[in-house]
Amino acid sequence: GQQLNQSPQSMFIQEGEDVSMNCTSSSIFNTWLWYKQDPGEGPVLLIALYKAGELTSNGRLTAQFGITRKDSFLNISASIPSDVGIYFCAGRMRSSNTGKLIFGQGTTLQVKP
Amino acid sequence: DAGVIQSPRHEVTEMGQEVTLRCKPISGHNSLFWYRQTMMRGLELLIYFNNNVPIDDSGMPEDRFSAKMPNASFSTLKIQPSEPRDSAVYFCASSFQGNEKLFFGSGTQLSVL
To answer: Which of B42, B56, B101 lies closest to A100 in CB terms?
Structure first.
């Protein structure tokens, strides 16, 4: 089935550093979303993107919808310990008219105080 | 709103037993999704409902899995008989009108011994 390639798989950084992760697909998506999952909880929506080239921020988080519509990026600036968790990209294909999403495999982020 | 409510949070059972997972979506949401999360396969969509009607169950692994949504405020995912390979975290999520912004429950951690 359709897959999203998310990288890196994991990151171990120092508090205060900036973080970048991305997600790519071989198909065109009309919606990209980024979720964060804390241990023992379900994913929580961070940012939703709807237009190619769109750049959206949520506090220290910034995400972009790639121009080709086949990729998306998430940046976290000045990381803090509570940023720890698993970050998932998710996309809805152009051909879909439902909420059915395809998820990436996740990027596990660890922040050293 | 209390969010999406799942029960139980943890379930440990023996191979061959029937397992029933429960979900209460957010009030007013008319789309409901069941996902399974494992280390190997990540987040997989099992089935989703729109207005209590199953729309796509292509992700259901096999006939041992069944899902129902008897009304707008309740859904069940049943595994009968359960097998050790069914061990995973099962998430329920809901959205409004099939919107891509999914709200997840806290999940049910299932262990089949």
So the answer is: B56
The Cα A39–Cα A34 span in angstroms is 17
Q: Please, what is the Cα angle at A82 between A81 and A86, to 5 degrees? A: 105
| Angle ∠(B42,B53,B55) on CA atoms, nearest 5 | 45
Placement of tokens 């989703």 in the chain: B48
The amino acid at residue A58 is N
For strands B108-112 and B10-13, give the pairing.
parallel
pLDDT digit string, tens, across residues A5-40: 999 999 999 999 999 999 999 888 999 999 999 999
In chain B, positions 77-96, which contact chain A (CB-CB < 8 Å)?
91, 93, 95
Using only C-alpha atoms, chain A has a radius of gyration, in whole angstroms, of: 13
State the smallest CA–CA distance between residue B17 and chain A in angstroms. Answer: 25
CB contact under 8 Å between B98 and A31, yes or no, is no
**Residues of chain B with pLDDT > 70: what percent?**
99
